[in-house]
Write a structure and sequence with these properties.
Largest sheet of chain B: 9 strands, antiparallel
Distance between the termini of chain A: 27 Å
Strand content of chain B: 25-35%
Order of helices and strands of chain A: HHEEEEHEEEE
Number of strands of chain B: 21
Strand order of the largest sheet of chain B: 12-18-17-16-15-14-13-21-20
Largest interface: A-B, 39 and 43 residues
Radius of gyration of chain A: 18 Å
Number of helices of chain A: 3
Number of strands of chain A: 8
Strand content of chain A: 35-45%
Oligomer: heterodimer
Shape of chain B: globular
Structural class of chain A: alpha+beta
Helix content of chain A: 10-25%
Distance between the termini of chain B: 13 Å
Strand order of the largest sheet of chain A: 4-1-8-7-6-5
Radius of gyration of chain B: 22 Å
Shape of chain A: globular
């Protein structure tokens, strides 16, 4: 990875990309959103566990690192989701069928994306971290707030960014949400 | 006036009261009569391989530490300090020499013995530490690496309790030379539903598939279940559904795992592994069981196994209207690591908190709890009569057998449930 080159134009274009993406998802334009994905995309939600705290590491930041809590793609555990283009295509298709019962009536969501941080810039491939809050209203008076971090790889092709990898670090302690099957 | 259990389930269990799902008094009877008496699944040996390894478990709402002691034996203790009651272990799993209570640092071995009371130096009368260990689960037994615990000291041996369900469980577990292993920490999903409905769903309810899941499962996929599907009830509360594939079926249509998303999208290495496993099945589990292509399994009261997506699940009650649903992917222990990583997605693509299919299940389980609470509907108990009396013994398979549309698995469960609650009713 080359040295990070950061310009206001680049930051602006990345932020605009995320704002448009959030708008599409909140407007349930999942087919348009799907066009933002590369065909070799990986979409991962690690599961989040409560590991032992090792007293020998006391005083070190590593002792309580977020990474220690994650069972992700490369772990021997079981991520909540590890999907590619095909699984996300099924999810998008499902949304436009009348018997997708857990979203009938459809989900009401509002995403706020912030803390957009360009971590690496290798010309056409960018590594970007961002944070999000997503409000999810479900019929029956239940409302939920999802919070998390997205670690993305964006790739520029034919003049536009596409998502080549997304890892979603969800800040749950217990999964007391009706589903983690949404588009984060 | 307290509810009478015999009013909740009629004699042939074709009518099930809405109160079974919602009533607090009924729930207290379930704790006493079912969770205080049955064998309850705690964990699998693959999770606690080495001395000092432990995992958390639950017996109903009671937290349990399942651990391998320094003597290599397995211990199950209630996760609660004998001084002030705090849980002494907060991690989901790990390896340790001691569990230490945060409040006054009373310390316990992984076997549950109390070894240190820091304050005893200050006082003249020394407490008898040998009498103050963690409360031990009175009975712990294992079968095929599956550890179960019971609060009932007089319960029948685990193998007898599982009975003929072992025949069906072995059709899966014995396929793999090295056995199976549980993958990582369980996904722990809190759902606003009664614990019995996820259990009933996995005990034999494959018939909701083409309806509830029509957005994802094409109607053709159900044809194989209509053609070859069978539902077995070995004894009330235990059940298995599977497709008994014909003798001339192609290996790819029988082999375990092949029909699930991870394998479908995988490369030749995974397919070859699954074919090789299937090639050994006849020799390992016999002809008829080698042709079994499982669907759902249930072990009374709250353990489930979804064969088609290789997942074990436990439905832990949290009151009448809440369940903590635990699920694990399971994989053959001797599969290559990269194959295991693909096979775990056979489960997670469709099931678990992020699964494409199970989001629909959790929705209807929650809606069923809402419906069960409606006022002015108590004279309309739920109809459980589909296929009443149509199940029969089978020349080669244990238990009572019929097509999967027969709801005998659910009637049998509720007959056992009624008996268990009547036994503790005042």
């Amino acid at each position: 990875m080359s040295e990070l080159t950061l310009t206001p134009e680049l930051q602006l274009s990345i932020e605009q990309f995320y704002f448009q993406e959030a708008r599409m998802l909140d407007n349930r334009q999942y087919q348009q959103w799907f066009a933002l994905l590369t065909e070799d995309l990986r979409y991962i939600i690690p599961s989040r566990t409560n590991p032992m705290v090792n007293n020998r590491e006391r005083g070190n930041e590593d002792m309580i690192s977020v990474e220690r809590e994650l069972e992700g793609e490369d772990s021997d555990g079981c991520p909540i989701r590890e999907e590619g283009y095909f699984q996300l295509m099924i999810r998008v298709e499902r949304a436009y069928k009348m018997n997708s019962w857990s979203e009938n009536p459809p989900a009401r969501t509002r995403r706020i994306v912030g803390n957009v941080e360009i971590m690496a810039n290798d010309g056409d491939t960018l590594s970007i971290y961002s944070n999000f809050h997503m409000h999810y209203a479900r019929p029956g008076g239940s409302n939920y707030l999802y919070a998390g971090q997205r670690r993305d790889t964006l790739r520029k092709a034919e003049g536009r960014y596409k998502i080549a990898r997304r890892e979603v670090i969800l800040d749950y302690a217990n999964i007391d949400y009706p589903t983690l099957g949404l588009f984060f | 006036m307290p509810i009478k259990v015999s009013d909740l389930v009629n004699d042939d269990a074709t009518l099930i009261s809405r109160k079974c799902w919602t009533d607090q008094h009924v729930y207290e009877l379930e704790k006493k009569g079912i969770f205080g008496k049955a064998w309850l699944f705690l964990g699998h040996e693959s999770q606690i391989k080495n001395p000092g390894d432990f995992v958390q478990a639950y017996m109903c709402e009671t937290p349990i530490i399942l651990a391998r002691g320094s003597d290599n034996e397995v211990y199950a203790n209630i996760n609660s300090c004998t001084h002030r009651g705090l849980p002494v272990c907060r991690a989901d799993h790990g390896n340790t020499k001691r569990f230490v209570c945060p409040y006054h640092n009373w310390s316990y071995t992984v076997e549950g013995e109390l070894v240190a009371i820091p304050q005893e130096r200050e006082v003249k009368t020394k407490p008898d530490k040998s009498a103050l260990g963690l409360k031990r689960v009175p009975r712990v037994e294992s079968w095929r690496g599956f550890y179960f615990g019971s609060f009932d000291e007089n319960i029948i041996p685990l193998e007898d309790y599982l009975g003929d369900m072992r025949y069906y469980l072995d059709a899966f577990l014995e396929r793999f030379e090295g056995g199976i292993e549980f993958v990582g920490a369980p996904h722990r999903w809190v759902i606003e539903a009664n614990w019995k409905l996820p259990m009933e769903n996995q005990l034999g309810d494959v018939n909701h598939g083409p309806f509830l899941h029509a957005a994802v499962i094409p109607p053709e996929a159900n044809q194989e279940i209509l053609d070859y599907g069978l539902s077995a009830v070995t004894e009330p509360g235990h059940g298995a559904t599977f497709r008994l594939m014909p003798e001339d079926a192609e290996v790819d249509s029988v082999a375990w795992g092949m029909e699930a998303p991870g394998a479908i999208l995988a490369g030749p290495e995974v397919h070859e592994y699954l074919r090789e496993t299937q090639a050994k099945a006849k020799q390992r589990v016999g002809d008829i069981r080698s042709r079994m292509k499982g669907l759902t399994y249930g072990v009374y009261p709250n353990l489930s196994f979804l064969w088609s997506n290789a997942s074990f699940k436990v439905s832990h009650p949290r009151g009448p209207g809440k369940v903590e649903y635990w699920s694990w992917s399971v994989v053959p222990a001797d599969a290559p690591d990269d194959v295991k990583k693909i096979l775990r997605t056979n489960y997670s693509s469709l099931f678990g908190p992020g699964g494409i299919l199970e989001q629909e299940d959790s929705e209807v389980w929650s809606q069923q709890f809402k419906g069960s609470n409606f006022d002015f509907a108590d004279d309309r108990p739920y109809y459980y009569g589909l296929g009443l009396g149509e199940e029969k013994p089978h020349p080669e398979l244990p238990g009572m057998i019929d097509i999967t549309a027969n709801e005998h698995y659910a009637r049998a469960f509720f007959m056992r449930w009624r008996k268990a609650l009547e036994a503790v009713e005042e």
